[in-house]
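Entry for pyridoxal-5'-phosphate complex. Fields follow.
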Amino acid sequence: MDSRISSKQRVVRLIGVASGLGVPERAKAGSSRAAAALEIADVGAGIRKNRVECAWDAVIAASADPQLPRDVALRRLCQRIDERVAACIATGALPVVVGGDHAMAMGTWHGVARANGKGFGLLWIDAHLDAHTSITSPSGNPHGMPLAALLGCGPNPWESHVGVLDARRVCVFGVRSYEKSELLLLQSLGIKIVSMEEIAQRGLQETLTEALAHVGGGRFGVSIDLDAFDPLDAPGVNIQCPGGLDGAALADALRSAARHPQLAALEIAEYNPDRDIDGKTARLVATVLESLSSPTGAEYMAIEQQHGAHNYAPLPVVLARGEGVYVWDTAGNRYLDMMSAYSAASLGHCHPQLMAALDRQARRLAVTSRAYFNDRLPLLLARLCELFGYQAALPVNTGLEAVETALKAARKWGYRRKGVAAERAEIIACKGNFHGRSIAIVGMSSEAQYRDGFGPFPPGFKLIPYGDAAALEAAITPDTVAFLVEPVQGEGGIIVPPDGYLRRCAEICRRHDVLLICDEVQTGLGRTGKLLASWHENVRPDAVILGKALGGGLLPVSAFLADREVMDVFTPGDHGSTFGGNALGAAVALEALDLIVSLDLPARAALLGEHLLQRLRRIDNPAIRAVRGRGLFAGIELDPNFFDAHDACLRLLDAGVLSKDTHGTVVRIAPPLIIEQAQLDDGIDRIGDTLQRMVAEFPRAA
Ligand SMILES: Cc1ncc(COP(=O)(O)O)c(C=O)c1O
């Protein structure tokens, strides 16, 4: 079955313009090669990846006749562009005109007028105003004139053209370099001008949304001059203009525009391959096109529903970008991340230092398997041992693999060191635990759904109530090899055990020669206010399991840490994984550990965590039964007679806050540890307001 989504998304037709007629002499050659270079760079590939049909419709070249006056040549060129654009629109396709010289805009937008009539809106994204007339232009180069001409101003060289735009719906965006005469002209016509300064002050998304609203409300077009981008993102332009727009952010922010049924055409101009040494600008053009052809949020969800397994029920938001404590959905809405991917994103999203480490290492060496040594893993292992005080570490990918590693180590230790009879080893875990989803691990879960339909399970596991040290002592037999416990149960509902629990468990384990293994996949690495949550009780577990944040929110990196007595039960061939310990993951994890330490994130989590808990506890709301937590790891237990936690999370989503329910009644709050107090307060305010509104709407069930 053809599951393309093009029923709603128009077919894209790329029209290349090979012309440097409008630019200064020095840029002519590059401009005239722009279309060919963009074709070679296959800038439409991303559109096809989005499952939207895309093909080159034509490459239109300027006349090579040196005798032809420039104005005449330009007019002929634009006429041909105009015809192709109109022809594309007539077939129902979206024309995308790409090229080297913004003078081509005369062709593009006259083509739209020919197909759809005059009087449409235009978003003109440009470092300049392009509103010279042949009288006011100091250089006389037509690439500085097209906007004035499209508005019907200026005698030459466009006198045969009359204005096609509706001046009330024209916006110039990203401006930072122009002459006064241009500004005066556009102001006299009532054109909306959004300067770079304003964008920096008010934010790209907000200003762009406003700009799109200004030009929309009827048929409209988007014209992008690549010099609107910062030269660091787009060096390959005819005239570089520092201090421009962030390429990826603009591409993202434009997503919704392209799906607008009233979008008539798109234009990307001023590409100069001669200055695009490493192809960065061509890649940016491809990114813009990919972004512009992206499915909508609803379409992404439908595709996933159709092609994915239904083992998750995500909240209805499609996230497309993250930075620090914020993430953005495909429609450009911003959310405060109060979930941090279950602590995996403790360092926030796309931390620049982590990105640099990832990029540096990815360009050197990524995955070679453990059939060889690599030059990153030894450094990670040494750092882990130093930081956490163990003699050895074993790297794996996901948390469950680290838990499985711990289970295997404990059993083998039981047989080889403790002297437990073969096949008799027993491991004790707690009710309400969450250690992952493998068969062995769900076998020791007390959650019926996690087990249902997946048996038979391996024997040798025993469950005791969480938080009850006496129950541990009572459950231990001579065959018990380990007690596996989370210092704070996360998935179980952010359950903080009674004070002294872990310390008493450690004493009991020591007395009975049982390994205390703390699963710190979620609680470790600063989350609860100390590097390890077990340190709150001055407990040094016999073994520790780390994961999530260890990968810096970029890669799955987990580890099992223990002393030699335990770790040395593994011999070559006993255990391993292809990706575990890969150089890329090790480099990122090393950087993540450095950041956690240098930013003193545990102390930050302790301080802000106290503030978070205090403020949450002060919320006076009858639907809140309890607030629990430690550090920046909190749970709000709701009274289901009012509403359940899932509904609360849906409302929080509407309020711009990402959180997740657990166990039906608990809203989990675990923001990135790098969060600022003002950001945290903003999140808490939104939570308080949302729950208040919900109580008013859903009074307590009788
Ligand atoms: C305490 C704990 N252990 C283990 C895991 C499993 O980690 P992963 O999902 O990376 O396999 C999780 C995941 O949430 C967890 O919270």
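NOTE: The domain at 12-294 is CATH 3.40.800.10 (Arginase; Chain A).
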